[in-house]
Amino acid sequence: MAATNPVVIAIDGPAASGKGTLSQRIADAFGLAHLDTGVLYRAVGVSVLRAGGDPADNAAAAKAAYALDPDHPILREVELRTDAAAQAASKVAAVPEVRAALLDFQRRFTQHPPGGAPGSVLDGRDIGTVVCPEADAKLFVTASVEVRAERRLKELRNRGIPAIPSDVLEDMKARDARDSQRAVAPLRPAADAFVLDTSALDADEVFARAVAHIGSKTGLRPTA
Ligand code: DC
């Protein structure tokens, strides 16, 4: 990538791998803009549900995806964090027209990072493989499904949401299967991604390893 292009850091991984927390921290540390691309799929899924549609219905999902723009108020709604939104997101994410509409959205963000930032951090499932194959650094953050279900359970309980451990584990497995087995842009590490297994690491260790990798690829050093 030419030196004048905005820098792009791609961070992919399954649900509850810790990639969201890491991505925000990396963006803050390097002074980059951050886009949580899962929010886009969640917004499309919730829009379809609100319109009384089925998230697995291609036409309804595509219509909602094309209606999404960066200023759409739904992108800031707390309802996007619910499990129902996550399940709907994972269904609309398998629709090719949805992925095409959101591809444009994501690429515009990398080409014109908001706030005059010199680049961006995108986190999702297919950033390193499809959205930004030319990213300056790619990380694939993962952890065992049991560890991720445990983290998700803790997060739900902290938010006062009652949850049954076996249900959380089953939901996590169902979402993993849908995300990694879909025909379009399935979840998988890019060939040149740095794979970071966070099962036995705390957040500071994950951050330190990510910073070292990004530094080795881009020459960037944390500014904060
Ligand atoms: O990261 P998340 O849990 O917010 O993602 C919600 C769903 O959106 C996830 O199950 C798969 C989909 N997704 C995707 O297919 N591609 C992305 N880049 C981000 C999310």
Structure description:
The chain is globular. A 5-stranded parallel β-sheet has the order 2-3-1-4-5, sandwiched between helices. α1 crosses α9. It is built from 9 helices and 5 strands; from the N terminus they run βαβααααβαβααβα. It is of the alpha/beta class and about 220 residues long. The protein has one domain: P-loop containing nucleotide triphosphate hydrolases (Rossmann fold), CATH 3.40.50.300. The structure holds 2'-deoxycytidine-5'-monophosphate. 2'-deoxycytidine-5'-monophosphate binds near residues 86, 89, 90, 93 and 126.
- Treating each run of at least 4 consecutive H or I residues as one helix, how many helices? 9
State the major sheet.
5 strands, parallel
CATH topology: Rossmann fold
CATH class membership: Alpha Beta
Q: What sequence of helices (H) and strands (E) makes up the elements?
A: EHEHHHHEHEHHEH
Radius of gyration: 17 Å
Averaged pLDDT: 94
Given the C-alpha coordinates, what overall shape results?
globular
Structural class: alpha/beta
Low-confidence stretches: none
Superfamily (CATH H level) name: P-loop containing nucleotide triphosphate hydrolases
For the secondary structure, the number of strands is 5
**Distinct small-molecule ligands in the complex:** 2'-deoxycytidine-5'-monophosphate
Strand order of the largest sheet: 2-3-1-4-5
Tell me the span between the first and last alpha carbons.
Answer: 25 Å
- How many domains make up the 3D coordinates? 1
Strand percent estimate: 5-15%
What percentage of residues falls in helices of 4 or more residues?
40-55%
- Tell me which CATH architecture applies here: 3-Layer(aba) Sandwich
